[in-house]
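ARCHIVE CARD
CATEGORY: sequence design from structure
SOURCE FIELD: tokenized fold
FIELD CONTENT:
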């Protein structure tokens, strides 16, 4: 019995602890407010939606104030390419279709 108990204690001590739930998710870049943590994906999606609303002149999306502040910080640090930068233009494709 004592040997089994000692073996169980040794096995438990040598096994690494399971990762915490917050360690399994995306880590938030340190430059964003820490009181409201958003993943890279969430920030990218929110910033893209904000940029689409701005470009289409249909008002701003309804974000919570902390998310809006985080989106503003994100947009200040990470440039979202313009439409012309995202998609090839006719002049860029002409060389491809010339014979």
């Amino acid at each position: 019995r004592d040997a089994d108990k000692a073996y169980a204690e040794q096995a438990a001590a040598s096994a690494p602890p399971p990762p915490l739930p917050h360690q399994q998710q995306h880590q938030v870049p340190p430059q964003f407010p820490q009181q409201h943590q958003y993943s890279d994906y969430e920030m990218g999606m929110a910033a893209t939606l904000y940029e689409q609303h701005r470009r289409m002149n249909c008002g701003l999306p309804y974000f919570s104030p902390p998310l809006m502040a985080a989106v503003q910080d994100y947009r200040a640090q990470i440039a979202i390419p313009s439409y012309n930068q995202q998609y090839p233009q006719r002049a860029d494709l002409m060389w491809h279709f010339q014979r």
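CARD ANNOTATION: The chain has a mean pLDDT of 74. Residues 47 and 71 are 6 Å apart (CA to CA).
SHELF: design records, drawer C
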